[in-house]
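dumping this here before i forget
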Amino acid sequence: MLPPTMSKRDPHSYNDDAQPEVEEVAWRARVDFLARVLEGEVVLTLRAPTSSAQPIDLDTRDLAILSVSGDSGGRLPFSVGAPEPILGSRLRIELPAQARTVRITYRTSPEASALQWLSPAQTAGGRHPFLFSQCQAIHARSLLPIQDTPRLRIRYHAELTVPRALRGLMAAAFRGREEKGELAVEKWEMPQPIPPYLIALAVGELASRELGPRSAVWAEPEVVERAAWEFAGVDQMVRAAEALFGPYDWERFDILTMPPSFPYGGMENPRLTFLTPTLLAGDRSLVSVVAHELAHSWTGNLVSNASAEHFWLNEGFTVFAERRIVEVIDGPEVCALQAALGRRELDRALGRFAAQPELTRLHTHLAGIDPDEAFSEIPYEKGFLFLRAIEEAAGRPAFDRFLRGYVERFRFRAITTDDFCALAEELLPGVLARIDAPAWLDKPGLPPGAPESRSTRLDAIRALGPTLPSEEIGRAFSPVEWQLYLEQLPHPPGGELPAGLLAGLEARFHLTGSSNFEILVDWLELATLGNFAPALPRVEEVLGQVGRMKYLRPLYQALCARSETRPLARRCFEKYQAGYHPIARQVVEALLRG
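structure:
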């Protein structure tokens, strides 16, 4: 347990406010694919020299700490605490007076929660292994010893030693590559201060294509052309976002199309956004995820939540910003459809947390709760609706001025919900009281009178109800309209589908063969719950193809909901779990235990 005298503002970090703060990181790591570890050395530079001898506590998880030294190279006393289930192990280092730097040599574990090591067979090319990181929410501590809290932003320099045949990438500015025999050393710099969860790397057989003056797409050679076509509109998105939120402060907006096991739709690592390959639908219908990750360049990366308890500040603002970008590019009807789909996802998330209503508040209290287990659509969609309510109360021109003022005031800072409320009261006096902000922030569920999406196309979908669309109507549906239609249908066991509807949908529209994973997974979930046996082989195929949690969770839940298909869920997990990211495996294991 932590000493009672510690002052902790982040329940997911050992960081003590009274201790020195790390300002800059110099990191060197050698990638060992055979052992599946990084051999690392990190030099932490403090914000100011210590005034007296004192300890500093760092976050670690499954790291082998080999040595710790100070400014002069002399060894410093250190101790590694017993691992806690959520926090990992505290690394306590005893600093002398006037200490400014700490050098730590260490080795990661093959089970590091931030890293996934893929065999050649798990890649598109099948020739080389692949490595990638995912540090959000609190996994950076398994990559390097650090104050792993978004409250403390850092700059860093990095050197990655990788096999010469492969290319390393980091979410940072590239500073050169030097080949030495069978190895290559690549150098990177992040000159802007970032929260540690935005440290990101990938190593594999990679190629790139330019998308615009500030953007390129990276992917395996077999995938890169498809990715370049799918994401060709990125430069237009950047310009639209700048018109709304101000200058883009990160110089580059490059994209890395990830292997299928990547557990999220995207990760907003600055300068190098990671995106799931499930977005490569072949019709550019899923690129709103790109708009979301781009919007994070302002809301999340530029202005960050101070801890996971204020996660809505990252995601609610970003969903709001994403939909404003979509509105500019695709029009208000498409924006309204996406907001309606988000509301459906919110309602499902609220139902999923019915037994834990405290996790449906925007401002959560997460001491003793793993942020990965609390993760849901609630901070995204409830946060979006909260901001929409403020916009409606204040008017769009006033709210746009507030949004720019918010980004400017808190630029390169980590903030709390109280910081947000204070600025809202300053720039939009009285608006929080008019919408009953405490009901949004501190109470569970969704307040009455939450904003509703309105669209003639949405009305037409609702009018269909649980009936089979005509061939003409179905062929004219956009992917979002298909999702809205499928999600409004009764889902057994809570509601019964009309006889023959599933067979009729498959016969008329061949949904089991869809290449759009958003439509496909919604359909397969419904078909599994509705006992439509012809879809089950495709369910198993998808569970073996992708590791995105957005798709794994509903499909495994649907299989587990019926006694006839629960054994299939277990067989699929035993067969495919090696290809899932550690975060995704944890989610599926919890479903199978339930």
